[in-house]
Design brief:
alpha/beta; 3 helices; two-stranded parallel sheet; 230 residues; 9 strands
């Protein structure tokens, strides 16, 4: 997976195992085993359970990055030296981007979006130059009014579409790729991978029409490092 951004940016990620996932029938997946709100259909094999806490490990192409717990907040004027664009975790702004099924027309400041991931959101980012209006509408339909999801453009994104949850990332070329829905089901509000389970996605103070802007320039020497050290 290509990483767009400043020179020398390296993704610190482990390689996930790729496996063939056989979809379970509805009869083979008891309702008591499924986390409420995760499955898109009865018996969805990508819904997290106590026995399969991270079903995304069975999705081809998912990259997992270990993020240390207890990440600090940064000031609205500070940058974080994230190891990938889009980032999947790390220090972040104290104000999270509204993620109650919000489709942003403008690129978001990374530090705000990362806080949304900490709350259990799935963030769909896309390069508007590489994704058609029709495909943008397809992606938007997966997000609009769906709690713990958000979507925004990133003009310099190398991959056409990139999905993020806390510590997880998946790049795809098409809005109709079945792995998009699998990723959302596996990781949206996943209680086993979300640092702040139950935290809200409502953010009334966050300006949805004119959010803090994305900064495409390399973070300077005063940027907060990924380990949060000052």
């Amino acid at each position: 997976m290509r990483v767009s951004g400043w020179s020398g940016g390296v993704r610190a990620a482990g390689v996930c195992s790729a496996m063939v996932v056989v979809a379970m029938s509805a009869a083979g997946c008891g309702a008591a085993d499924v986390i409420v709100g995760q499955a898109t259909a009865a018996g969805d094999s990508f819904a997290p359970t106590a026995d399969n806490r991270d079903p995304s490990l069975g999705i081809r192409g998912v990259v997992v990055t270990e993020i240390a717990p207890g990440q600090p907040h940064v000031l609205p004027t500070q940058r974080v030296a994230y190891s990938s664009i889009p980032p999947v975790g790390g220090p972040h702004d104290s104000q999270w981007a509204a993620c109650a099924g919000v489709v942003y027309s403008k690129a978001l400041r990374s530090e705000n979006a990362v806080h949304s991931l900490e709350h259990g959101a799935v963030w769909i980012a896309y390069n508007p130059a590489k994704v058609s209006a029709e495909d943008q509408a397809t992606l938007s339909a997966k997000v609009t009014d769906r709690q713990y999801t958000l979507m925004s453009p990133i003009p310099d994104l190398d991959d056409p579409i990139s999905l993020q949850s806390w510590g997880h990332q998946l790049a795809v070329d098409s809005a109709t790729d079945e792995r998009i829905d699998q990723f959302i089901v596996a990781l949206r509000e996943n209680p086993y991978t979300t640092p702040e389970v139950g935290a809200t996605c409502s953010s009334p103070l966050f300006d949805r029409a004119d959010p803090p802007p994305y900064d495409p320039t390399p973070p300077g020497p005063d940027a907060v490092p990924m380990d949060g050290a000052r």
